[in-house]
From TrEMBL:
<dbReference type="InterPro" id="IPR050770">
    <property type="entry name" value="Intradiol_RC_Dioxygenase"/>
</dbReference>
<dbReference type="InterPro" id="IPR007535">
    <property type="entry name" value="Catechol_dOase_N"/>
</dbReference>
<dbReference type="InterPro" id="IPR039390">
    <property type="entry name" value="1_2-HQD/HQD"/>
</dbReference>
<dbReference type="InterPro" id="IPR015889">
    <property type="entry name" value="Intradiol_dOase_core"/>
</dbReference>
<dbReference type="GO" id="GO:0051213">
    <property type="term" value="F:dioxygenase activity"/>
</dbReference>
<dbReference type="Pfam" id="PF00775">
    <property type="entry name" value="Dioxygenase_C"/>
</dbReference>
<keyword id="KW-0479">Metal-binding</keyword>
<keyword id="KW-0560">Oxidoreductase</keyword>
<protein>
    <submittedName>
        <fullName>Intradiol ring-cleavage dioxygenase</fullName>
    </submittedName>
</protein>
<dbReference type="InterPro" id="IPR000627">
    <property type="entry name" value="Intradiol_dOase_C"/>
</dbReference>
<dbReference type="Pfam" id="PF04444">
    <property type="entry name" value="Dioxygenase_N"/>
</dbReference>
<keyword id="KW-0223">Dioxygenase</keyword>
<feature type="domain" description="Intradiol ring-cleavage dioxygenases">
    <location>
        <begin position="136"/>
        <end position="164"/>
    </location>
</feature>
<keyword id="KW-0408">Iron</keyword>
<comment type="similarity">
    <text>Belongs to the intradiol ring-cleavage dioxygenase family.</text>
</comment>
Length: 295
């Protein structure tokens, strides 16, 4: 609150907060009560600190309304908003506390889709998506170093055009799939070498980024979701070492431990599974460590 606010004005504003907080006194759910009263305190503190104008408040309501209108089963503008404000990454960090050498989590993003196609170990998730082939391999283990057999690994990524399959309007399923680790906790598959792309910026969130001079670009990455009985489900990505966007990823998803070396290969380099590749390709290794469930 600024120094220009009179004592009487301050009293009136504080009294309102007290009355709003008291309105939750009969809430029977202690956690819900905590969330609502804390939200009221922080929202009112923000409004008072910046001396929010009615015009600005109205613009904020218009923004939220527009975000609701553009959101559908293929696009979640509110996730984008949470992402670009760093709230998604903060919440993920709070709920995935550091545990030994467990792999760090990062944002889910708005383009995860249930019921992806299953592929065998060594199979391809590309589904005809454009992009340079990339061989991905690694292992899944628990925090004690024991291999995790049968872990489910969901993977998805954008194509060379910077689009996920759901952003195309032809109903394709491409550059996504799932597979299971073998008896030794190993996995491998063919994907696409990740490339940078912009988050959808033709809507309300994009207007905010433009207004504040921020780029909508995401650093190159490949999404993973890894789950196994008795272990914490991991949602993460890996990023391409050397990508110039690593320090300016628009959703603050990059973590140093998730930056990996994608080794470029020439067309005459033998592939791990003997597959013939027309042109260059890349390969990357990503060993995943899962924390115990409930940690």
């Amino acid at each position: 609150m600024t120094d220009t606010v009179s004592a009487e004005q301050e009293r009136r504003e504080a009294d309102l907060i007290e009355r709003v907080v008291r309105s939750f006194d009969d809430c029977s759910d202690p956690r819900l009560k905590q969330l609502m009263t804390s939200l009221v305190h922080h929202l009112h503190a923000f409004a008072r600190e910046v001396r929010l104008t009615e015009e600005e408040w109205g613009k904020a309501i218009e923004f939220l309304t527009a975000a609701g209108h553009v959101t559908d089963d293929k696009r979640q503008e509110f996730i984008l908003l949470s992402d670009v404000l760093g709230l998604s990454t903060q919440t993920i960090g709070i709920n995935n506390e550091a545990y030994g050498d467990a792999t760090e989590a990062t944002v889910l993003g708005p383009f995860f889709v249930e019921n992806s196609p299953e592929i065998p170990i060594g199979g391809s998730i590309s589904g005809g998506a454009t992009g340079e082939p990339c061989w991905v391999e690694g292992s899944v283990s628990d925090s004690d170093g024991h291999p995790v057999a049968g872990a489910r690994i969901e993977v998805w990524e954008a194509d060379a055009e910077g689009l996920y399959d759901v952003q195309h309007d032809d109903g394709r399923t491409a550059a996504r799939g799932h597979l299971f680790t073998d008896a030794e906790g190993r996995y491998s598959f063919w994907g696409i070498t990740p490339t940078p792309y912009p988050i959808p910026h033709d809507g309300p969130v994009g207007k905010i980024l433009a207004a504040v001079g921020r780029s909508p670009m995401r650093a190159s990455h490949l999404h993973f979701m890894v789950s196994a009985a008795g272990l914490r489900t991991l949602v993460t990505h890996i990023f391409v070492r050397g990508d110039e966007l690593l320090d300016s990823d628009t959703v603050f998803g990059v973590k140093a431990s998730l930056v990996k070396e994608f080794e470029r290969q020439t067309s005459d380099s033998p592939t791990p599974d003997g597959r013939a590749v027309d042109g260059s390709w890349s390969r990357v290794s990503f060993d995943i460590v899962l924390a115990p469930a409930g940690t």
